[in-house]
Amino acid sequence: MAYTFDPIFAIDPFDPSKAAANAAITIFAPGDNTQAPLTITDTSGLPLANPVTTNADGFAPAFIADLDRVAWIGGGLTGFLTSYEGLKEVATAAADSAGVAAQAADGSRVAAESAGTTAASGAVAAVQAQLGAAVDAASASAQAAQAAALLVDTPAGSVIRQTVETDLDTPGSGLSTRLNAAFVRFVDQDGNPLPAGSVTTIHVNTTTGDIDDITFEEA
Q1: How many Å apart are CA 42 and CA 180, to the nearest integer?
Q2: What is the mean pLDDT of residues 158-172?
Q3: Among the listed residues 175, 178, 180, the one whose alpha carbon sits nearest the alpha carbon of residue 165
Q4: Model confidence over 85-130: pLDDT tens digits?
């Protein structure tokens, strides 16, 4: 792209009264240590000699170059020139980049909000599911407890419990006889049940299979 530059005013920026009058000014690329003259044209597009010659006040004609910023040297002075078209192009590019960045940021914000909403919904659903399961379990336990309470409180339950207790306390009863036949009962020398919590140990000889001893320890 070609960039238009305003007329050159070759002066010392630290001493504006000092100008490169009637001097040959070479226009070159910034950073070019060889200071090779750039190809330039006048504002009509016609070739323009480089170096250009300033007038008695240090002015040289406007020109067009392929760079948006150039360096110049001549008459014992040096400096830089920037095309307003180049500045505009840079500003426009920066604005476009800022717009793209803003759109990307807005898209990221929308995505983040959507992700947050989805995550929150999922968390709420999970909590609701856990609460529902807990409520169901509590309800089932309550129902089971109520059913057990009803069973214990029924007349039939009381009759069964009383019958079993009476049968166990009656020597020679069917239930008492069957239990005595199926289990070993330990009593003291007077035939009374051993104290609660006491320990009776049968010592068996694992070689012969005989019972070596039976010991008793009170609680």
Answers
A1: 130
A2: 62
A3: 175
A4: 866 666 776 777 776 776 777 777 777 777 767 766 776 677 578 7
Measured CA to CA, the distance from residue 46 to residue 62 in angstroms comes to 12
| Rg of the chain taking only CA atoms, in angstroms | 55
Counting Cβ atoms within 10 Å, is residue 217 exposed (0-12), middle (13-18) or buried (19+)?
Answer: exposed
Please give the average per-residue pLDDT across 182-196, as a whole number: 76
Tokens 């599911």 locate to: 129
Q: Is the dihedral of CA 72, 74, 79, 84 positive or negative?
A: negative
Nearest to 70 by CA among 35, 42, 21, 44: 35
Query: Identity (one letter) of the amino acid at 15?
Result: D
CA distance 117 to 188: 77
Q: Which residues contact 10 (CB under 8 A, 6 or more apart)?
A: 19, 20, 23, 25, 54, 58, 59, 60, 72, 74, 75, 77, 79
- Please choose, from the candidates 35, 34, 33, the residue with its C-alpha nearest in 3D space to the C-alpha of residue 24: 35
| DSSP SS3 for 18 | strand
Query: With 70 as the cut, is the pLDDT of residue 158 above it?
Result: no
The DSSP secondary structure of 41-95, one letter per residue, reads E-TTS-EE-SSEE--TTSEE--EEESSSEEEEEETTEEEEEE-HHHHHHHHHHHH
Specify whether the CB–CB gap between 64 and 45 falls below 8 A.
Answer: yes
What ranges do the domains of the chain cover? 3-82, 161-217
User: In whole angstroms, what is the distance from residue 21 CA to residue 24 CA?
Assistant: 9
Instruction: Give the distance from CA 26 to its chain's centroid.
Output: 59
